[in-house]
Amino acid sequence: xxxxxxxxxxxxxxxxxxxxxxxxxxxxxxxxxxxxxxxxxxxxxxxxxxxxxxxxxxxxxxxxxxxxxxxxxxxxxxxxxxxxxxxxxxxxxxxxxxxxxxxxxxxxxxxxxxxxxxxxxxxxxxxxxxxxxxxxxxxxxxxxxxxxxxxxxxxxxxxxxxxxxxxxxxxxxxxxxxxxxxxxxxxxxxxxxxxxxxxxxxxxxxxxxxxxxxxxxxxxxxxxxxxxxxxxxxxxxxxxxxxxxxxxxxxxxxxxxxxxxxxxxxxxxxxxxxxxxxxxxxxxxxxxxxxxxxxxxxxxxxxxxxxxxxxx
Length: 312
Fold this sequence. Notes:
- This protein has helices at 44-62, 86-92, 105-113, 154-169, 177-184, 190-197, 202-206, 209-217, 221-243, 256-259, 265-270, 278-286, and strands at 7-13, 18-24, 29-35, 72-78, 99-104, 119-124, 128-134, 137-141, 249-252, 291-292, 305-307, 310-311.
- It contains 12 helices and 12 strands.
- A hairpin with a 2-residue loop joins strand 7 (128-134) and strand 8.
- The protein has a 5-stranded mixed β-sheet with strand order 3-2-1-4-5. The chain has a 5-stranded mixed β-sheet with strand order 9-6-7-8-11, sandwiched between helices. It has a two-stranded antiparallel sheet with strand order 10-12.
- Helix 3 (105-113) crosses helix 12, helix 4 crosses helix 5 and helix 4 packs antiparallel against helix 9.
- The longest helix is centred in the C-terminal third of the chain and has 23 residues, at 221-243.
């Protein structure tokens, strides 16, 4: 089964999973599916493989064949697109779509959260980053990648708890129920944890975040300190956008709901529920709802503000 109509594909390619959504010209959902991580950190080929796996699964759900991709316009929000050479490499790749535009996953989430209008988001997921849009200019704060950045993220939370678990194993720190559970994941053998860490990726560390948050909510003192530290980091990013006069703020990402209660009352009161998600933002781009400006973007300035590719 196929269709001769025009369709639109929105991709939210993150560090944990890749989500694909296909809509028709009227905005009706035709198919949606997900696959594994789609981030440049796992390599361009692997990221593209995840994108196509999610796309093909969504297309199958929609009753579309690969031949229909020639009438499909794609917008792809991709984690790690800001890495040197990443966007140029992806733009050179052969693809089956009628048109294809790449943007960062953070910008896709910001566009979706505020329906393409000016505003800002802070992503709290496997990684963390702040992205804002003001008068057609994209402002990006932090998000340089784990482990050098991404404070307050799931990966950062996981790194902190593994470090503290090793300290507890040496009796250099208190052994709380949280740390005992983390050590149990390594059979209470610190050297097994060390061997694991030599191969572990951000997603592996982030898998410990729900455990930390669960124990924190149960009163574990180490868990509370880790989550409070994460909330402070996320709050700092929100404060930076408030200082720029942005009053449309949303917290998004897999840890958003878990971190929100740990923010200050003032910040919680300022947050607004996002209009939609990153896949919806990518669909705005695919549909051409945002005008494409010059492809030759200026270099980022010292405050990490750059001209956006898109103007509302």
